Amino acid sequence: MKIDKVITSGKFRLDGGEWDVNNNVYIIGDASAVYIVDPAHDLDAIEDAVAKRPVRGILLTHAHNDHCELAPAAAERFGAEVYLHPDDAPLWKEANGDAPFVPLSDNEQFQVSGEAITVFHTPGH
């Protein structure tokens, strides 16, 4: 399994404030398929890193706007579902309205490159 990192830049908004931030976006997998973790700010840069590999899903670590605003567009572009823990639904709704996501559960696993990506629910930031 290979992990590629893309650094993107954009705005983080919380409680009425706004800041310029850089975000790490991870592409996890191999030539056969990948998962995208926390797509942020620049979908074209993420698509370049995906390099035409099939995207099995978009995994979100949490729903602050800089981690999730781009997720619905990424899901549409790559034909993949977005996965998010349901505790983050209020922040997701604030950023994305009624856009769909698949609820994650603690210890859920995603298979890629013959290995498992395991979800560990760790509330807080």
How would you describe what is shown here?
It is a single chain. The protein has 125 residues and is α/β, with parallel strands linked by helices. The chain has a single domain, classed as Ribonuclease Z/Hydroxyacylglutathione hydrolase-like (Metallo-beta-lactamase, Chain A), CATH 3.60.15.10. Helices cover 22% and strands 38% of the residues. The protein is built from four helices and eight strands. Strand 7 (109-112) and strand 8 (115-118) form a beta hairpin. The radius of gyration is 14 Å and the shape is globular. The two termini are 27 Å apart.
Quick take:
The chain has helices at 43-50, 65-68, 71-78, 89-96, and strands at residues 2-14, 17-29, 34-37, 55-59, 82-84, 102-103, 109-112, 115-118. It is α/β, with parallel strands linked by helices and 125 residues long.
Which band does the percent of strand residues land in? 35-45%
- CA radius of gyration: 14 Å
Mean pLDDT: 95
Number of strands: 8
Encode the helix/strand succession as letters. Answer: EEEHEHHEHEEE
CATH topology: Metallo-beta-lactamase, Chain A
Number of domains: 1
Q: What portion of residues is helical?
A: 10-25%
Query: In whole angstroms, how far apart are the ends?
Result: 27 Å
Structural class: alpha/beta
Largest sheet geometry: 6 strands, mixed
CATH class: Alpha Beta
CATH superfamily heading: Ribonuclease Z/Hydroxyacylglutathione hydrolase-like
Q: In what order do the strands lie side by side in the largest sheet?
A: 1-2-3-4-5-6
Shape: globular
Q: Which runs of at least 5 residues are low in confidence (pLDDT < 50)?
A: none
> Counting H and I runs of at least 4 residues, what is the number of helices?
4
Q: Write the CATH architecture name.
A: 4-Layer Sandwich
Subunit arrangement of the protein: single chain
